[in-house]
Each structure stands twice: as C-alpha cells, then as structure tokens.
Amino acid sequence: RDADGRRVFDLTMQRGRTDLGRPDPTPTWGVNGSYLGPTLRANRGEDVLVNVTNELGEDSTLHWHGMHLPPEMDGGPHQTVANGATWSPTWRVDQPAATLWYHPHPHGRTAEHVYRGVSGLFLVDDPAAAALALPKKYGVDDVPLIVQDKKFDGSELDESDAPFRNQGILGDQVLVNGTPGPYLDVTTERVRLRLLNGSNARIFNFHFADDRPYLLVGSDGGLLPEPVEVRSLELSPGERAEIVVDFEPGETTVLRSAPLDSSEDRAAGADDRFDILEVRAAGRLTASPPVPRRLAPAPDLGGEEVVTTRRFTLSGSSINGDDMDPERIDVVSEVDTTERWIVTNDNGYPHNFHIHDVQFQVETVDGDDPPPAYQGWQDTVLLPDRAEVALLVRFSDYTDPDTPYMYHCHLLRHEDQGMMGQFVVV
Ligand code: C2O
Ligand code: CU
Ligand code: CU
Predict the structure, then answer these.
(1) What are the pLDDT digits (tens) for 265-279?
(2) Using CA atoms, how far apart are residues 375 and 115, in angstroms rounded to an integer?
(3) Which is it for strands 222-230 and 156-157: parallel, antiparallel or unpaired?
(4) How far apart are CA 273 and CA 369, in angstroms?
(5) For the stretch 196-225, what's the b/e string if a residue is b when 16 or more beta carbons lie within 10 angstroms of its beta carbon?
(6) What is the C-alpha separation between 289 and 117, in angstroms, rounded?
(7) Ligand 1, atom 1: closest residue by C-alpha
(8) What residue ranges define each of the domains in the chain, with the CATH number in brackets?
(9) Which residues lie across from 393 on neighbouring strands?
(10) 302-317: string of b/e by CB count within 10 Å (b at 16+)?
C-alpha cells in the first residue's frame, strides 16, 4: 500500500523464454515473468494503483477487461504505454466480486501481444461473496484456469494464419496457465474452477470426459443469482465462468472441450476436440459445504425505462459497415440511463461482442430468454452464426466527452481489423 492507502501493484511487461513442452524454450512475452502475469486481487471499495512498465521493445497498452473505471484508466488503444515508459492508472474498485482479467490493447496489434503471452487475472472480492460457503482457498479449492490454444512451428509460437480462415489463429494444442498437458490434484470434495477463455479466436465447449454435471456459479461480472447445473458450457474469447465440481475420493477425470453446439463452421474450429485438464482426486478428501442456493442479486435492468435503442451489425470485419477509426466517436451515451443494444451477427461464422467499463444484462438471445450461462452480468457475449442478442446497458459514475471506451468483437483478429467502435459517456 502507498501513503494514500491505495493497494499498489507493480507490473512489467517483458520478453522471455518459456518451457512450453517443445524441444527448446519458446520465445514468449509475459508480465513480471516470461509468460502470463500475476493474479491481481482487490476488494470492492479499495483504491488501486498499478504501475505498468513496458519493456517489450515496442509500444503497447494494458487493459482491465470487465472493470468499471474512468476511460483514461481503461488501458484501451488511447492509453499507449510507450516502450520503456511506465503508466500508472489508479481507480476505486467498485463492483461485485468477479473474475476479471488484463491484457494488451494496442490498436491493430492486440492479437499478437495477447498470443505471445501478455495477460493475467484480476479478481475482485466483496464481503457478500466472501460470506458465501463457496470454495475460496486460492490454489487449493479455488483454482484459476487460463485456457488458451496455441500453434507451434518447432519451438516457436506460430503466428501465421491458415488461408481462407476468417477467425485468426486457431491452435492445435491447449495451454492451461501456460502449462501443456496439465493436471490438477484435488484434495477437497468440491472445487471451484475459474475459467478464462484467453484465446485469440477459439471458442471452447467445456465438459467432463464422464459427462458429469457441475454447477455454474459465476459469469463475467460475478456470481449468478443461483447455481445452475450444466454438463457443458461454451465460452468465447474473453469470457469467464466460475464452476463448482464435486469429486469422489481417488477418482480421475478430464476436463475437455467438445465440438461446438452453437456453430457448424469447421473453419472456425467448431468440430475440434481438446483435453484441457486432467483432474486427480486424492484418496481422502476434505469435506466441503454444499453450494448455497442463492448467490447474488439478479441483474435488474429489465424493469428500467429504456431511453435509447441502438443497433450494431457485425459483418465481415466491421460494425455497421465501418471499421474502427480512433478519431471517430460512434456512440454518445447518457450517464445513468438504460439503453438497449441490439447486436446482430450477419455472418455465417461466430463473433462475439464486448463492451468496456460496464457489465450488461443479456435481455434476449434470438428473441428468447437468455440461457443459464447468461443470467448474470456479462461484459462479453457470444454471437453464434446469424444470431441476434439484445443487451441492457447502463453506464454510471464516469463521464468524459473526450476520452472514449471501446466496444468490439473479442476475436482478436477481428478487433485488430477494425471490428470495433468507440463510445463516450456524458
Ligand atoms: Cu478484453 Cu477491449 O478488451
Ligand atoms: Cu475490455
Ligand atoms: Cu468477430
């Protein structure tokens, strides 16, 4: 902590080499190390200060994905951290407990910076969530899993795209927290897994090899209103989920990714299967309390008067026919009013849609009530081939007519190609 009582984090984006199971160490990028970065953690109500030093050898940025904060602190394309410089954003954390993350956002180069390894988790805690009987011993029964697919050329990361592929890089190998072929030793009856799809383009469809049910307890913006039993869960790039899984003493299973339910586009990886993580339960397991039936207040924007409805059509690599222009403001939103954002995927392959600064409520998916996975707050939503979602969005606290936030497809190649727009809150 500094003299003002702020929680201080020092992060250095740097280059290195990492053992990723190849013949030689792989040239990679990371934060305070050679691949990925530390998990940051702060309480609701706390002031934080992050010193971000860039030693990458080229300009970048560091964005706090899912965080509610002023636009100058956001780490988007307008907050360049020049090579050799230090940028020190500060803000008050004020949102429900959630699994957020950070990653670079330099315009046109986000895909390569994230792919090389610059990202990490940012966990928000709050007293209400801390009081719940959910697994919460970090690294023991509360385990973060940053899931990323990679392609290699020998020992190097392969950044080339296959021809005719719209999505950007799809790998044929999965890393979890930067580890190839990972396993997890379980010592408790229940384990919370915090899943981040930290890939560039890959959509995962998480299920267990024995098809066991598990409880979905959290989404992008924090805990769901109540746990939902599922057997599979799709997460598109940038999305997070928290699940709680039961284990029997001595058993072994594998967390896998199955072919997608939402898409048939083979070029988008819809047919691919991966083993993600082997889970090995000890012969004796420490007892875990049952998962509470009520977790958090449900999103409540449905009862608000909608003052503005906006439409966003994702097509090719643009939104409403326009590529991102850093000089153009696409949307001006009024603070503390509720808007409906209707987002349509006009293509026969998947996109997704992410809005900075805010957690939104998914009102409908193709005109129906949202699926269980989208009954909490989201900052990123999957848009399957030709889908349409309606989002209820309400910006609060921070107004600035001059500094925009971003909305964009989080398939990083699309984002870099300009499938992104800018909004200000006034
Ligand atoms: Cu996770 Cu604008 O990004
Ligand atoms: Cu973001
Ligand atoms: Cu896209």
Answers:
(1) 988 999 999 999 999
(2) 30
(3) unpaired
(4) 29
(5) bbbbbbbbbbbbbeeeeebbbbbbbbbbbe
(6) 36
(7) 65
(8) 7-126 (2.60.40.420), 142-286 (2.60.40.420), 301-425 (2.60.40.420)
(9) 339
(10) eeeebeeebebebeeb
307: its two tokens: 């003052």
DSSP 3-state assignment of 416?
Answer: helix
For residue range 330-364, list pLDDT tens digits in order. 999 999 999 999 999 999 999 999 999 999 999 99
Q: Distance between CA 411 and CA 139 in Å, rounded?
A: 29
Nearest to 195 by CA among 277, 273, 296: 277
Number of the ligand 1 atom closest to the C-alpha atom of 408: 2
- Structural tokens at position 44: 């609701």
pTM equals: 0.98
Do 394 and 301 form a contact (C-beta atoms < 8 A)? yes
Return the number of other C-beta atoms located less than 10 Å from residue 263's C-beta: 22
Report how far apart, in Å, the C-alpha atoms of 167 and of each of 162, 251, 262, 346 are: 10, 38, 15, 15
Residue 166's pLDDT band (cuts 50, 70, 90): confident
Q: Is the dihedral of CA 68, 73, 75, 78 positive or negative?
A: positive
The position carrying tokens 């706390």 is 46
- Ligand 1 contact, 78 CB (< 6 A): no
Q: Please tell me if the CB atom of residue 63 comes closer than 6 angstroms to any atom of ligand 1.
A: yes
Share of the chain residues as helix, strand and coil, in percent rounded to the nearest 5: 5, 45, 45
Q: What pLDDT band is residue 160 in, cutting at 50, 70 and 90?
A: confident
Interface predicted TM-score of the whole assembly (ipTM), two decimals:
0.99
**6 C-alpha to ligand 2 centroid (Å):** 23
Using alpha carbons, select from 220, 270, 264, 237 the residue that is nearest to residue 386.
264
Nearest residue (by CA) to ligand 1, atom 3, is: 65
